[in-house]
Amino acid sequence: MNGVTPSNRLRTALLKADGPFRQFLLFVMVGAAAAVVHYGTLIALAEGMTVPPVAASAAGFLAGGVVSYVLNYSHVFRSERSHAPTAAKFVAVAAVGLTLNSAILWALIHGASLHYLPAQIIATGLVMVWSFAANRYWTFGAGPAAP
To answer: Is 3 buried (19+), middle (13-18) or exposed (0-12) by CB count in 10 A?
Structure first.
């Protein structure tokens, strides 16, 4: 075995990356942590409490949003801006993201007859691109990339 694992490849990519690309990689890692919270809430509510999948996903999206804001503010965009206006912008971006997420999820479940989990994976990828761009250029003002 050559010792190359996915985590080693990610660590190497992060160490070699700089600027917006490094910021995007960190954003993806924060997104993964937020997604664990999002999906965990979605599955717990949909499977354990029989909440409809779109509503369960919305609750998970909001819970993951809290994780995302804290980590993006402090680690990805390294913001020094006041929390009140920054959080308000983040919530606005998240609200658009929630709307996009719910619409995509609804369309894939009801229009394309996908199970809610593969539908959620597709929605997550699409909303991630929107969220990075909006947060980088508007919420956190394209500040310095994470060192």
So the answer is: exposed
Task: Write out pLDDT tens, residues 109-139.
Answer: 999 999 999 999 999 889 988 999 999 999 9
**pTM score, whole prediction:** 0.68
Q: Following CA atoms 19, 23, 28, 32 in sequence, which dihedral angle do they give, to the nearest 10 degrees?
A: 150
Tens of pLDDT, residue by residue over 68-111, are 999 999 989 888 888 899 999 999 998 999 899 999 999 999 99
